[in-house]
C-alpha cells in the first residue's frame, strides 16, 4: 500500500466519521470503497482505534494550521472570529458533515482513551485560541460586549459545536448561520 492509498483511506474514513459517525463504517466498507483488500488496511491501521488516532492527529494539525492562517490573514479579533465561524461553516459541507471532534464526541464509548484525550487536547487548543482572540477583542475594540475572554471562549466553542449538530440534523447551513448570527453581529 503506498502513501496515496493510505491518504485515500484516511480521507474516506474521516469523511465517513464526519457524516455517519465512528460506528458508521467498517474496514470492509473502506476496502470496498477504495478497491483494496481489508488486509491492506490492517497493514497501516491494525485496528480502528489506530485509524481513529491517526485521524485525530491529522485533524489537530490541520486545525492548528487553519487557526495560524486566520491569525496571519486578520489583524482584528472581530475579523478572526468571523473567519473562525467561516472555518466551522465550511466543515459542514452543505450540512452533510460535522467537525471531527463533534463526530467523535457523539460516539465516545467506542473510542480509545488515547483518542478521547486527543479530542480534549484539540478542544483545549481551540479554546485557548478563542480566549486569546477575545482578549485581543478587549484591546482592539473589534468585538462588542465581551464579558470575560475565557467565558466567551467556552460559550463560542459550545455554540459552534451545537450549531454543527443542529445544521447536520437539518442538513441546512441556514441553521448554522442563524445560530452564529449574534456572534457575527458583535464583530466589527
From TrEMBL:
GO terms for molecular function: DNA binding. Residues 26-45 bind DNA. This is TetR/AcrR family transcriptional regulator. Residues 3-63 form the HTH tetR-type domain. Pfam families: TetR_N. Keywords: DNA-binding, Transcription, Transcription regulation. The lineage of its organism: Bacteria, Pseudomonadati, Pseudomonadota, Gammaproteobacteria, Pseudomonadales. The keyword Membrane does not apply. SUPFAM superfamilies: Homeodomain-like, Tetracyclin repressor-like, C-terminal domain. It comes from the Bacteria. InterPro entries: Homeodomain-like_sf, HTH_TetR, Tet_transcr_reg_TetR-rel_C_sf.
Amino acid at each position: 500500500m503506498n502513501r496515496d492509498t493510505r491518504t485515500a483511506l484516511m480521507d474516506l474514513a474521516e469523511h465517513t466519521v464526519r457524516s455517519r459517525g465512528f460506528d458508521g463504517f467498517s474496514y470492509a466498507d473502506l476496502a470496498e470503497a477504495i478497491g483494496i483488500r481489508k488486509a491492506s488496511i490492517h497493514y497501516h491501521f491494525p485496528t480502528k482505534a489506530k485509524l481513529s488516532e491517526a485521524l485525530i492527529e491529522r485533524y489537530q494539525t490541520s486545525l492548528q494550521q487553519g487557526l495560524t492562517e486566520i491569525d496571519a490573514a486578520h489583524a482584528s479579533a472581530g475579523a478572526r472570529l468571523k473567519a473562525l465561524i467561516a472555518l466551522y461553516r465550511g466543515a459542514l459541507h452543505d450540512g452533510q458533515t460535522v467537525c471531527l471532534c463533534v463526530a467523535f464526541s457523539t460516539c465516545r464509548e467506542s473510542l480509545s482513551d488515547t483518542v478521547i484525550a486527543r479530542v480534549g487536547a484539540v478542544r483545549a487548543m481551540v479554546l485557548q485560541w478563542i480566549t486569546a482572540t477575545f482578549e485581543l477583542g478587549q484591546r482592539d475594540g473589534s468585538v462588542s460586549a465581551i464579558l470575560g475572554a475565557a467565558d466567551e471562549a467556552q460559550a463560542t466553542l459550545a455554540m459552534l459545536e451545537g450549531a454543527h449538530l443542529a445544521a447536520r440534523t437539518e442538513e441546512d447551513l441556514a441553521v448554522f448561520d442563524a445560530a452564529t448570527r449574534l456572534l457575527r453581529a458583535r464583530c466589527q
